[in-house]
Amino acid sequence: MKDLKNKVVYITGGTKGIGLGVAKSLLAEGMKVAISGRTQQSVDQALKEFNNDAVLGVVSNVAKMEDEKNAVSKILDKWGQLDAVLANAGVGNFAPIDEMTDEAWHQMIDTNLNGVFHTLKASVEALKKSKGYYITLASLAGTNFFAQGAGYNASKFGVVGFTQAAMLDLRKYDIKVSTIMPGSVASQFNNNEPSEKDAWKIQPEDIGELVLNLLKMNPRTLPSKIEVRPTRPDKK
């Protein structure tokens, strides 16, 4: 997609953090952006960040297939096309496996892993028509396991594997599929409130720049799995 002007992108979990940062980057390139959140309140709050007719807010819980189908339907009703999707919605619950609750485990699997499947299934026919791009937001936790991360690791290892297999399935339709695997990002993830102490971390706009680079990449070339980390980690 050399020229991104008026191309349509859907960003799940787009009401804050990485998703909101990417939305701002893509809007600056002239794209039309749909962002989703789990509640009307979160969507309305995010829309206050924009004064732009090129933004659509939709309520969707990615853990529910029907929600994602409805979200994509609203995007197509408004703009008639869908050119790119960033499956960004995610949650993290961290505890030793013997202390992790059933609820915490299923919330992560349902959102982080089932969610990327629901989003792709809901959007894939539109992406076939546009020869579009599907990008998942995984994590370095998708290849690096750590204590108290069994549930999160399981979900993100799954996202990485799912995305790579989907890439092989969909490239025959000229759909590009990539996964981005960030390390520490200055966002609201895990109840963090970004501040000056997070200046060393990857910033949401950095992921936005990375997404733009992927969308502008020559059609013959596909960076299918991208690890990204802070240049200089915080000194403990």
Automatic annotation (TrEMBL):
Q: Which UniProt keywords apply?
A: Aromatic hydrocarbons catabolism, NAD, Oxidoreductase
* Alphabetical list of InterPro entries matching this protein: NAD(P)-bd_dom_sf (IPR036291), Sc_DH/Rdtase_CS (IPR020904), SDR_fam (IPR002347)
Q: Which PROSITE patterns match?
A: ADH_SHORT (PS00061)
What is a single Pfam family found in this protein's UniProt entry?
adh_short
Task: Note the NCBIfam families from the entry.
Answer: PRK07326.1
Report the sequence similarity comment from the record. Belongs to the short-chain dehydrogenases/reductases (SDR) family.
Q: What is this protein called?
A: NADP-dependent 3-hydroxy acid dehydrogenase YdfG
Q: Which organism is it from?
A: Maribacter sedimenticola
